[in-house]
Amino acid sequence: MQMNRSASLARLLSARSIAVVGASEDLVKPGGRVIASLLLNNYSGTIYPVNPGRSMIQGLTSYPSLTALPDAPDMVILSVPAKDVEASIRDGLERGAGGFVVFASGFAEKDAAGAEAQQRIAALVKARGVPMIGPNCLGVMNGSAGILASSTIVMRGRRMLAGNCSLISQSGAIGTYWLDMMMNAGHGMAKWLSTGNEADIDVAAAAAYLAEDPDTQIIALYVEGIRDGVTFRRAARRAAAARKPVVVLKSGRSAAGAIAAASHTGALAGADDAYDALFTQFNICRVESMTAMVNLTRLLLTQKVRPGRRMLVLSVSGGAGVLLTDAAQAVGLETPDFPPESKAALRAILPDFAQPQNPIDLTAQIVADRSMLRRALQVAVDSGVFDGLLLFVGGLSELAGELAEALNAIVRPWGRPCAVVWQAVTQEAVRTLNEAGLPVYDEIPEAAAAMAAALGIAEGWERKVIPAEDPSPRPAARVVHLTEQASKTLLAEGCDVARPRGILLTSADGAAARLAELRAPLVAKLQSGAMLHKSGHGGIVLHLPDAAAAADATGRLLALARERGLDAEGVLVEEMVGIGLEFVLGIRDTPVFGPMLTLGRGGVEVEVDPDVVMAYLPLGPAEIEALIQRLRVAPLLRGFRGRPAANVAGLAEAVHRICEFYLANPELREIEINPLILDREGRVLALDALIARAGGEHG
């Protein structure tokens, strides 16, 4: 099915014939701008203006309706009011149109009536398997085919540049800003899609198409919310397999931003941490601004990147070299020094007052000795120490040609990335480097951040294990919460999760005798579905010294249940577990991306100072162990101040069994264990647990 959607999108985005309904001579109107843009960009296919009031538009034969066209168009652009969209789609389907681009707003983003109208037009195209972009969108572009099928005023009177980066944007305006920034930097685009309300083609479907598009080397996304998580996961996996970087700017981090996103296109932003978990796991690089996205894209388009974070910092200013070193280390890059033999070689190259160290300060002597850069670079490359180059230049615009020649002569064969910061420079000098395939940045932090992000993507391709399966989100249903006793019994039987020794009591009568086999100190916990979290409601009594005290506590807890009218299974009395490392484990079904594991430092303070990692199922033991090593508490697990290393492998194996248990039981909706103890003997025990499972249809 997805292959068919990709094929239908390919026909739309490589259209050999385009009909424009609402075509106009007036370039102020969208129907006029889009025809003018197609003509300006030398679109080689056939353009069919559709306007019953005119016989000719912008020198082209106009037709009274879609059904009057001589051939079935590959693309139909609807530049008509919302009230006329449905009828136009029916006409286009009757004529055999390959797909639709709907500019009009006033649908689901407006009101309930608009949402109903959007559902109707979506049903029409989906029934025929014909793709529709929009409504409420700015259209699509194909840089190499001259298809500027957009109403944007940003591109009015401009020719597109062909390139190898494609953008999908849920905001048409944001998409055009990106395009303007890329073109101003001298880069074009392969494909450009403004998805709007996503009544049919959404970000996930478009990403799946671009993951297979031979013209697209980099996929850039502006996302407010993703609707089809399973398709998006598959697209991300295909992109990773093809080594296509995916860069995303995701809005809606704040609650206010999420609300604004919902009102913008009708998309729900969803929990931001769920998106972060997906991006991290699927090697999608999240950036925080359009500038950062363009900066990273420019580096990826021009430089070879592979794993490694050791940077050579080279500057014509000692102060700038220090700033560049600081910026590099702030984003996780390393700046190792040269080995002794390389230092000796540098002493013969640099002025006497310059130190042979990283960062290298070439000083103003580079003006007098222009071979210095090339020779110093060769020493660095020959050292085998470095994985990339960060270069600062100030002024010296006259050196642009020699600088480009030296960098390409040494760095290109090296096969490692280079980023240049050049300040107080002419635009002509910057253009010289850009044309030589060298990205130039205005600010030091921008270059360092772009380099770190690019290398992070390369590391992800080598090291990350992306899930091979994509479990679907589970159907909404009413849930039943099991008590701690029932939850721990189910976990023990289903996935061999150990628990402290204990006894469930339904009465205090004779309790002391029954509890005599347990080893004090003991804990007594009321078991009621109406009191799932006991510590803040008087439902738990700790540090009971003997069986008699536990029996007394049992009676008091049962009395508490009666006083509050709680339906109680009884009181669970367990042996208290000695000192160990506490973790919290949670598995829940997210409504977009499916089952997700949350694992972190546990205990009652987990909500006050969270130290957690998240990832989507399925996960193997090795991947879970890698997650554990990302926790801030990880140094304690490796052994700290004489303490032995913890049994992390055993913990990872236990967590893996719980994850597999969740996947094997589709009625489960949530598993929470807090705390999950890893004791000094290496045992993994569930001290408290809560399971929610489907208990009826969602109402």
**CATH architecture descriptor name of the largest domain:** 3-Layer(aba) Sandwich
User: What's the count of strands?
Assistant: 30
Name the average pLDDT: 92
Shape: flat
CATH fold name of the largest domain: Rossmann fold
Structural class, from secondary structure content?
alpha/beta
Kindly estimate the percentage of residues that lie in beta strands according to DSSP: 15-25%
Largest sheet: 7 strands, mixed
Rg from alpha-carbon coordinates: 31 Å
Which superfamily, in CATH terms, is the homologous superfamily of the largest domain?
Answer: Succinyl-CoA synthetase domains
Ends apart, CA distance between termini:
31 Å
Q: Report strand order across the widest sheet.
A: 9-8-11-10-12-13-14
Number of helices: 22
How much helix is in the residues?
A: 25-40%
Q: Which stretches are poorly predicted, pLDDT < 50 over at least 5 residues?
A: 261-270
Any idea of the CATH class of the largest domain? Answer: Alpha Beta
> How many domains, in number, for the residues?
4
